[in-house]
Write a structure and sequence with these properties.
Helix content: 25-40%
Order of helices and strands: EEEHHHHHEEEHEEHE
Largest sheet: 6 strands, mixed
Strand content: 15-25%
Shape: globular
Number of helices: 7
Oligomer: single chain
Structural class: alpha/beta
Radius of gyration: 20 Å
């Protein structure tokens, strides 16, 4: 899951961009610098998709499921939570109502059924009756010595009695080809880096649960791994900062272009590049320790 790094001030036509990165925004820049710009600086709207909405719905159910007593954390209870959670999401994000018209009731029913299948896969991978997460939907933040802020939201953090930490993320899509596992794990290593820097403990295990195909991807990070991630995110920000200085975020064509919501503004596919707005980079204030 992610947070926005940019704030738009329409009256002044100035985009204030925090000197910060999240796994999603870092991934955007690596995928396509122009995509990063349109999401972070211009903040162009993107239409909701059934797949993304289903992912949000399943995440909400798995988060709130742990509010129930351990013995009641069953598949049946999780499935029963879906309609209520969907109603809450519609209230929070009214634009999601446009995913299905009244005439598409059958499609909406099939869509909800696919969420049931994802929950069923989750229960085959884990038994939540035996888990007591330390944190769910945990906001993590850290500011590097360079002033670069790192932040994001972790699906779940488990802490063993001996202090070992497991970081868990739910994915409602399919697991990646082994050639792309490193890219998938970057998000988890990013979170592990922030947890290490804020808690002083390297997480023992990073775990991705892919609910579309029932695959579990695990990784045991080391301090050297996480120092490498720290260098990588700093290098990414340096490249982003240079793009701001040049006012130039180049498109990077790939197979992912077919799913991009901004092709009308991409010169690589015949679109018209938007004028670069005035941008102000805003430093991130380090968090003040409690007490």
């Amino acid at each position: 899951m992610d947070v926005a790094e940019a704030i738009t001030h329409p009256a002044a036509e100035v985009r204030e961009v925090r000197m910060s990165l999240s796994p999603s925004r870092a991934g955007d820049f690596q995928t396509c610098p122009l995509l990063y710009r349109y999401r972070t600086v211009d903040r162009l709207p993107e239409p909701p998709s059934p797949a993304a909405a289903r992912g949000t719905l399943v995440h909400a159910v798995l988060e709130d499921l742990f509010d129930a007593p351990a013995t009641e954390r069953t598949l049946e209870r999780a499935v029963a939570m879906l309609p209520g959670q969907w109603a809450e999401l519609l209230e929070e994000e009214p634009r999601l109502a446009g995913l299905f018209t009244p005439e598409q009731a059958a499609e909406e029913t099939a869509w909800l059924s696919s969420a049931v299948e994802l929950l069923g896969t989750y229960f085959r991978l884990e038994d939540p009756r035996w888990l007591e997460p330390a944190d769910r939907e945990l906001r993590v933040d850290h500011v590097l010595e360079s002033g670069l802020g790192l932040g994001g939201i972790v699906d779940r953090v488990d802490v063993a009695p001996d202090g070992r930490i497991r970081v868990v993320d739910y994915k409602t899509g399919r697991s990646p080809d082994p050639r792309y596992e490193d890219k998938a794990l970057f998000q988890m290593k990013f979170y592990a880096l922030v947890l290490w820097r804020t808690r002083g403990v390297v997480p023992t295990l990073l775990q991705l649960l892919y609910l579309a195909d029932g695959t579990v991807l695990q990784y045991e990070p080391t301090e050297d791994d996480l120092r490498g991630v720290e260098r990588k995110v700093q290098a990414l920000w340096d490249a982003i900062s240079a793009s701001y200085d040049r006012q130039d975020f180049q498109p990077r064509p790939s197979a992912l272009c077919r799913w991009c919501a901004h092709t009308q503004h991409c010169p690589e596919v015949g679109g018209t590049l938007l004028p670069f707005p005035e941008v102000r980079i805003v430093p991130v204030e380090p968090a003040v320790p409690p007490g």
